[in-house]
Every structure is written in C-alpha cells, then in structure tokens.
Amino acid sequence: MTSRACVIQAFVLGACTAMVAARCLSAGQLKVRADRFQARHQVHALNYTQQRELTCAQLVEQAQQQPQHLYTRALSPWTYRLNRDERRFPRDISEARCLCSGCILHRAHEDRPHEEHGYNSVPVYTHMLVLSKTPCAGQPNKYRLTKRMLRVPVACTCVVPKYIDEQRKTDLV
C-alpha cells in the first residue's frame, strides 16, 4: 500500500496500517527504527505532569480565583491524561479529556460564570502517525513494526448541540 493510499484510507476509515518492515527485528534494530521514525516524524517525548482530577464546578471556582492555563480558561475546559502503550512508538501520548458536558459562560447580568447546558463541550481530534510493534511468531525477542494512524483528542471546544427533529426521529425508527 502506498503512503498516499494509506493517508486516504486513514481519513476515510479512521485507521490505517502498512508494513514498515516485512522481516522481524531484534531489540537493537527495533530501537534504531523507532528512533529514526520519531526523529523523522518530529515525535518528541512529552513533558507530562499528572494533573489532579477536577470536576467542572471545581474548575469554574478555581478559574475565578487564579486563571492559569488555556485549557482551564477555555469555554470548554479540559485536562490531560497520559495514554501509555509499551507496544507503540511513541510510547506516551497526552490526550485531552473534557471536564464539562456543557460550556462555561459568563453572562453580563450574572456575577459569576457557570456551566450552561444549552451548549456542548466536545473533544477536538487530530491524527497522529505511530509505530506499533507485534511479536514475531516463533521468534522470541523479535518484533514486526506496523505504521498506523491514531486519532488523538488534543483539546475541547464549545459547540451548539445537534438537535434531531422529533418527526424525523420517529420516521427513522
């Protein structure tokens, strides 16, 4: 499969796999390939710090007192969590998780912002090329590498909810 076909398949199907190496690689060869892949695709180790889990209400209160980062000041605040997979390069990927189901709004006639459920907080995604390693059958300590596209949530945004016309909804059922 060509790389162009792989990219097209990734966006149409949401996932893509293509063989990087047809042969099995030793641990040393695997490290060389992974390092080269990460350098070529500008994959850097993430400086991930564990964030304490906040509720939407706690975040609104905290943001009033001491606004900090963009992800806590947004209308759809989010936090990051670490997705670690030992069978993948890069091993660690930070993923966004929306803290509120609604959006944080501050109306002119109100003294404080609050969560408004007339809007929705939804994740914003990007696609990231990763390498997956799978053990070779019958060859201990040898692996095969596969490229694939991974859908990663990177932030959250505030949107108008989708409404389904009740008549259309009953027609579809």
UniProtKB/TrEMBL annotation:
One of its GO terms (biological process) is inflammatory response. It is found in: Secreted. Its main location: secreted. Belongs to the IL-17 family. This is Interleukin 17c. InterPro entries: Cystine-knot_cytokine, IL-17_chr, IL-17_fam. The keyword Metal-binding does not apply. It comes from Periophthalmus magnuspinnatus. One of its GO terms (molecular function) is cytokine activity. Residues 1-22 form the signal peptide. Pfam families: IL17. Keywords: Cytokine, Secreted, Signal. The keyword Signal applies. One of its GO terms (cellular component) is extracellular space.
